[in-house]
């Protein structure tokens, strides 16, 4: 850890601790993840920064249409797979929520995207592929509804951005994305 990274990201570290302390997990597995995130944050003051430890927090946003029947996914360039929108926290982000909103807007081109104020799911996963010093993401996942008629735009980080039926997710993604989509639909009341 470098003291400079921890100092630069101190506001996000404090916000992450606050968000995760106040968040009521929907089940025991999610509560266990919440507790492990808090333990990781306590051990690593720089755990919200990409330049911090190889395992660090990220923020993401799953985007649904107004009916809850379609989900917007990005075909990530580095991972070469379909995911919800999201990524690393940046020093200019004011909070985890702002990081998830920024990532959602950047990766979708949807300028008015605003997630719910609280996370809908946590997911800790090991990265597969060439991600430099990043080895594991402790993802804090938010949910949002896209404005009717909103048109997504592919960012430099993606091969594609596309709407998918929630019951017809891309091959190989259902195990990870289906629970997230279900949590988002529930939280959004869709």
Short description:
The chain has 190 residues and is α+β, with helices and mostly antiparallel strands. It has 5 helices and 7 strands. It is globular and about 45 Å long.
Total E-strand runs: 7
CATH superfamily: Nucleoside Triphosphate Pyrophosphohydrolase
CATH fold group? Nucleoside Triphosphate Pyrophosphohydrolase
**Main sheet, how many strands, which sense, barrel?**
7 strands, mixed
Number of domains: 1
What can you see in these coordinates?
The chain has a single domain (55-188), classed as Nucleoside Triphosphate Pyrophosphohydrolase. Helices cover 33% and strands 25% of the residues. The protein has 5 helices and 7 strands. It has helices at 3-8, 10-22, 28-43, 96-108, 174-188; strands at 55-64, 70-76, 81-83, 85-88, 121-126, 136-145, 158-165. Strands 1, 2, 3, 4, 5, 6 and 7 form a 7-stranded mixed sheet that branches. It is globular. The mean pLDDT is 92.
Keywords:
190 residues; 5 helices; globular; 33% helix; seven-stranded mixed β-sheet; Nucleoside Triphosphate Pyrophosphohydrolase; alpha+beta
């Amino acid at each position: 850890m470098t003291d400079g990274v921890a100092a630069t990201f101190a506001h996000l570290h404090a916000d992450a601790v606050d968000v995760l302390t106040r968040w009521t997990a929907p089940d025991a597995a999610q509560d266990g993840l919440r507790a492990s995130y808090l333990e990781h944050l306590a051990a690593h003051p720089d755990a919200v920064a990409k330049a911090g430890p190889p395992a660090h927090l990220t923020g993401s946003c799953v985007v649904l249409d107004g009916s809850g029947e379609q989900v917007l996914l990005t075909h990530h360039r580095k991972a070469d797979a379909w995911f919800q929108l999201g990524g690393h926290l940046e020093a200019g982000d004011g909070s985890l929520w702002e990081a998830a909103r920024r990532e959602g807007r950047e990766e979708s081109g949807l300028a008015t995207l605003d997630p719910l104020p609280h996370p809908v799911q946590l997911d800790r996963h090991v990265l597969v592929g060439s991600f430099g010093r990043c080895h594991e993401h402790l993802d804090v996942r938010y949910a949002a509804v896209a404005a009717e008629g909103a048109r997504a735009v592919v960012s430099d980080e993606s091969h594609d951005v596309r709407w998918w039926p929630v019951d017809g997710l891309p091959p190989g993604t259902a195990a990870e994305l289906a629970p997230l989509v279900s949590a988002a639909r529930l939280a959004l009341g869709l």
